[in-house]
Design goal:
The chain has 7 helices and 9 strands, in the order αβαβαββαβαβββαβα. With 167 residues, it is an alpha/beta fold. The strands form 2 sheets. A 7-stranded mixed beta sheet has the order 4-3-2-1-5-6-9, sandwiched between helices. Strands 7-8 form a two-stranded antiparallel sheet. It is globular and about 40 Å long. 35% of the residues are buried.
């Protein structure tokens, strides 16, 4: 995010981390916390055993919500259910940052678009060589062809063609 600390402090930010996507979310939330900005964080995983960095995230998040697909721990169900719950409880978010499996980011973006929440995604999952040479991370963003490794990996999630990218 290329905004000043003062601008960031005015925003209500929600991070949505799926599986190993929790690893790149953690240092961002930690940095915000160190600068006096509290962000809400949803961590989702298939099962309790696959959950990572919960204690670390708890220490730096404004509010931490843990979800498991199988209901074995925390809230039951997909991260999108928790986003809906939080908004229905009156939370208003200016920005959502989603990092995780492509299918998770797709459905987070579908929901945040309906809710009018600007969303940034990280397309690391489709990157291979990191040089723009192999073309494996080619993705359509808006009406433009981009390479996640050299043009991103962060993009406006509402402009990413996830269906094409997941093929």
């Amino acid at each position: 995010v290329e905004e000043s600390i003062d601008e960031l402090k005015k925003k209500k930010i929600l991070f949505v981390a799926g599986g190993v996507g929790t690893a790149p979310v953690y240092p961002q939330v930690k940095w915000l916390h160190e600068h006096g900005i509290m962000a809400d964080v949803i961590i989702g995983s298939k099962t309790k055993d696959l959950l990572i960095l919960e204690k670390e995230m708890e220490a730096v998040a404004g509010n931490l919500y843990v979800t498991t697909d199988d209901g074995s721990y925390g809230r039951s169900g997909m991260v999108t259910k928790t986003i809906e719950d939080l908004v229905n409880e009156g939370n208003k978010y200016d920005l959502c940052v989603a990092i995780g499996p492509m299918i998770m980011m797709k459905f987070v973006c579908k929901l945040t678009k309906e809710l009018g929440i600007h969303t940034i995604v990280s397309l690391n999952p489709i990157m291979v060589d990191g040089t723009g040479m192999c073309g494996a991370c080619r993705v359509t963003v808006g009406n433009e062809i981009k390479f996640a490794c050299v043009d991103g990996p962060e993009f406006d999630g509402h402009l990413v063609n996830f269906d094409e990218a997941m093929k």
